Every structure is written in structure tokens, then in C-alpha cells.
Predict the structure.
Amino acid sequence: MSFRTRLFLIMASVIALIEILSMAVVNYRFQLDSEQQVKAELEGAHARVEVFQSISLEKLVTLASFIAEDPRLRGSIVTRDRTTIGRALDELYSNYWHDLFWLLTPDGKVIARVESPDMWGDTLADRSVIFDASNGFDSGDIWIENDRLYHVAAVPIRSGGISVGILLIGEEFNSHFTPQFTQLAGLNLAFLTGDSLISVSESGDRRTRLGSRLAAEQRLGKLSFEQVPVIPKRPTLATEATAPIIRFQLDDEPIGGALFTLSDVTGRELAQGLIYRSLLPEQRQLKRIQLGLLIVDIIAIFLTFVAAWFVSRRITRPIERLVGASARLGKGDLESPIKPEGSDEIGVLASELEDMRSSLVKARADLIQSERLTTIGRMASSIIHDFKQPISAIYGYIDLLTLPGSKPDQIEKYKKSVFNQFDHMLGMINELLEFARGEVRLNKVKINSKRYIEHIIGNFEHQARTKNIELLFDADWSGDFSIDQSKVQRGLENILRNAMQAVGKGGRIAVSLTQANGMAQIKISDNGPGIPPEIREKLFEPFVTFGKSEGTGLGLAVAKRVIVQHGGTIDVESPEGSGASFIIRLPQLPVVVEHTMENS
């Protein structure tokens, strides 16, 4: 995996993880804030119920006081005639319709009722509101009768400053208070006694299902009215309890609610109350927010990957260029300049590499110049050293030619020796020229291999006898090959000359000629000291002169080049301390079989 890929993955992963965590935190905060908002709304809702209840009761008392001032009511009650009182009460009821519309004596006995149940009894003197009205005070309270909740107001009816009766009017919660509160506050109300639902803002089947649900919640112990706020709030309470929050499902709809207790003015508990509303809007809003966050998250992650790719590419491009430049330097390309980009650490590194490249260019130029001078010096030294021997020989032979009394056959021999030394010098010069040109031009001719090798060996027989070297030749094959005879001869002579220098006096050199696989094989073996392994690997390199007292060191290098140019090979075998063998293989010419046809 490349550095750019790793950097891209690391950057993208870290940023994506941060974004996912951020979105998760935002989602959690939205959810938590939504829950806190619902909780705060429901926990404080009982205070709104109390305020609304107080306003409703105050309006009812005010209305009752206004009705009690009507002359028709006072006039009728003074007559003490039930028919007259009933007619006046009916007229007022048609103008001021209420669920309870009663007329009582000052001591609390019922005189007349309009649209009201009869089972309440004929005297209400034990009711607190009646007691207050009997004493001349306007009063209001909450009653529960036959599982129905009422707001009631009782006021004295006066005539001439004397109380002649009591007017009591009332409103049932189901028809007034509960629906009005739901309409104004946007919250639903439900009142229970035990596990019976006696008042609720719902209607129809939903009311029935709500009652069943709340009864089930009570049975499960999830609907507890201990330590809940009381409405109306009693001044004797040191602190007001916090409304407990409950949650339940109704028709697969999440519902949240707060509990409280409803009591009358004396503090007597009348019913348990529940303020509730659907949590579906919050759930839908939360889902919309979560969907929006998911879309934003996906877009952000995509943009993150794009941005990470561009950033990683921008960061790694200079590094990749530096890596490429380093690779080129490693391969020896010192000509391509390295351009620094910027002044940061990468730019500084590029500048350092460019300085190194410039230094290497200069060092290479100096090294090449030094190598050239060294090579020229080695060649000059080698040439001078190698030319000393034939020049000295020529000088000696010329000296002998000038001696008086020399015989003709001696003179001819000396002259031949001089020409041989000149040929030897010319061969060395040609070796140097061919090596310097780096190419070998071949002038091939067809020649018999056995006679060719015998001729070359014959040139060394006199020298071998002089040095007491045994020179053997064995030919198992005498076919033809096509070669440049002068160049191949000079190569074979270089190998033979090296062998004679290696074995010294009393040595032995064996030459064999065989053929195999369409190749002519010439093997030249000696019993000299052999060639060390460290020299053997570079034996065919120029200027290697191990084991020789003379020569340019180019003989084997030129010989190998010539043989390779002929399509052949040259190998060396030299077991340590057991002499050396040079094996030359050259392509042989195919044998042509001639057929003679005789006429019959």
C-alpha cells in the first residue's frame, strides 16, 4: 500500500469518525432537548390547570352574583309561591343556561331545581359553599356527584339587605372546563376516581381505549398519585411536589403526561388528574432531524473523502517526485535536475537532493577524467613496457646483422627474426586499435582446422624447445571452418603465449582439436600454477596481466571479442593449483557430400 493511500485512508477515517461522532452528539442533544422540553412543559402544566380552574370558578361566582341581583328572582322568592318561583327560575335559566341551576332557602334547603338530578337531597346545609352563602359570602367550590365533576358557585339573594335565599349554579367539567382547557392550552385532561375515567377531553372509542389504558397502567403500578401536586394548592403545604411524568402508548401513539390530585376547597381529595398530550410531533420532528443529519453526514463523509484525496495528493506529490528523483539518481541518471517546491521540509529535502546531484555530476566528471588519465597512463606504461622487449630484440638482431663475417644463412635468419618482432609489435598495435574502436571487422575465409592449428603451434615450437616446454597437439577432427584467420590466430597465439609464460621452463602445454554439436572445439591446457578464483572472474577484462611478465593485458579481452564475433565462445577451467584450460568453440562448416551419377 502506497504512502498516499495510507495517508488518504488515515485522514479520511479520522475526519469521518469525527463527523460521525459529531452527528451522533448533535442527534443525542436534539433528542435530549426534545425530551427536556416535553418534560418541562408537562411538569409545569398542573399550574396552568390550577390557574385556569381558579379563573373558571371566579367567573362562575361573578355570574352567580350578577344573576342574584335580578329583580325577577328576588321578587319571586319573596312570594314564597313555588309556582311563581319556578316560573322565574325557568326564565332566568333560559338566559343563563348552566348544568346546575338551583334556588335554596337561607338555611340550605332546596326550593327549586332546573335540569338537575333529584337524588342530591333536599338540604345542602353541610356543603361549604352553602355554609358560606348562608353567612352572606359569595363562594365557589368543586363537587363530585355520581362520578361527575362540577364547578359550583353559591351566592346569597338579598332583598332590603336581608338574605331571602341562596342561588347555586354549576358547570360540569366534561361540558365546560375540560374542553375549554384543551382548546386554550393544547393539552388534554383526564380525571379518574380509582380506575374509573370520569372526565376526559377525548370522546368516542378513543375515550374508552384511554380509560382501559389508564386502568392497565394503574394495575401495573405505573400510575401512582403519591407525592403529586394538589389542585387547588393548599397553603399549608411547605413545598409543592413535582408532577411525575408518565409515558404510555395509545393506538400506537406515544403519550406523555403529568399527574396531579384534584381536591375541593377544604382539601378533600375528589379525583386524580392527568395532563397529557401526544408525543408524535416530537417523534416525527426527531425523525426528520435524524434523516437530515443522516443526509448531511453522508454528504459530509463524501466531501471528506474527496477533500482527503486532494489533500493527500497535494501532500504526497512532492514526496513522490522526490522518490522518483532518488530512483533516477540510484540508476545513475544525473542529468535530470530536481526542482525544489516551496520552503517547507520537503522543499529543503529537494534542495539537498539537488545539491547532492550536482555534487555527484561533478564527482562523476572528475572520476571519468581521472579514470581516463589512469587508463591512458596504464596503457602508455603497458605499451612502453611491452615494446621494450621487441625493440631490444630488433636492436640486437640489427647489431648481429652488422657484424662482419656473418654467413648468409645467419643473416637471413636474423632478418626473419627482425620481421617477426615487427609483426609482433604490429599485432600489439592492432590489439590496442581494435580495443579502442570497440569493434572487430572480420574477413572470413574457409580453412582446414587441423592444418590451421598445426601452423599456429609451429610458430611456438622453437620457443618451446628453447624453454624446454613440452608442446603437444592432438586432433580428433580435421574439418573446415570459416574464420578471419589473422584475428583468430592472434587470439590463439595470445593464449599460447600466456600459457608458455605461466608454465615456465620444463612445463607442459597440450592442444586438442575436437568437434561436438556442430562446433569446433580447441582446448589449450597447461600445468602451470593455475588462476586464482578472484582473478578468474575478471580474466577477460582489459589490462589483466596476472602470471605474465610481459604483454598489454588486452590479449584475452581481444581474443574473446573476436571469438564472440565469430559466433563462438571461450571458457576457462582452472582447478586451484592444477593449471588452466582455455576452451574455444567456433562454428564448423557443414560437410558437403558429393554424389556421382554414372551413365548406364
In short: The chain is about 50% helix and 20% strand.
